[in-house]
Every structure is written in C-alpha cells, then in structure tokens.
Amino acid sequence: MADDITEEARQVIDALKHVEAIDDPVERAVAISQVLKDYKDRAPKLRDMQREAVLLLRAQEVSYRKIADRLGISLGAVQNIERGHGSAWGTKPRKRPAPDPE
C-alpha cells in the first residue's frame, strides 16, 4: 500500500507541482508563501492524525515494520511517532539545559 499513492495525496502533489511551475518568480513566491503558511498551521493536526493511526495499529499489536510499510514511513519514524516525537528529527522535544549552580 505504501507504494500506491492515494488520490487525495496525488491531488496535493499535483497542486504543488503547479505552484512550482508558475512562470513569474514573484507570483510563484507568493503562492509558495501561502502554501507554507497553511502547512505550518496544519502540521500539528496532521501529525496528531498520523499518531492516532500508529497508536491504533499498535493497540492491534501490529508490528512496527508492518506499520511502517503500511503508512509508507520508516521504522524509526513509527517508533518516534509512538513516543510522541513526530516523524522528523526536528520535532523531538529538546532537553532544557540544567541551570547553572550558583
């Protein structure tokens, strides 16, 4: 299933290709800015929805490897998502440095 792209994902990818193909650099930059802002606003919800699917499959005792294959993501991403870290390195919570003892 991971190799088969859903129709909805295909439409989004095609729309992004159209944005990239805009001839006027300024018009293209405006469209890119709009897409990136919308993604920034949606990203937390999208990650939560992905995590919901991972947790549902884990509750059904589906292996990490099978989840990774089914969702089209890496094994490590599945493990990180289950831990609540998101799927990218940059979404992992950072440890705060210990305060300086005075």
For the biggest sheet, the summary is:
none
H and E order: HHHH
User: Which percent range describes the beta-strand content?
Assistant: under 5%
- Which radius of gyration do the C-alpha atoms yield? 18 Å
Measured distance between first and last alpha carbons:
57 Å
Mass-distribution shape: flat
| Helicity range | 55-70%
Catalogue the unreliable spans.
none
User: What is the residue-averaged pLDDT?
Assistant: 87
Count of β-strands: 0
> If helices are DSSP runs of H or I spanning 4 or more residues, what is the number of helices?
4
Structural class: mainly alpha
Q: Give the tally of structural domains.
A: 1
Mind explaining what this structure looks like?
The structure is a single chain. The radius of gyration is 18 Å and the shape is flat. Helix 3 packs across helix 4. With 102 residues, the chain is mostly helical. The model has no long low-confidence stretch (mean pLDDT 87). The protein has four helices and no strands.
Write the layout of secondary structure elements.
Layout: H1 7-20, H2 25-59, H3 64-71, H4 75-83
Keywords:
mainly alpha; 102 residues; 65% helix
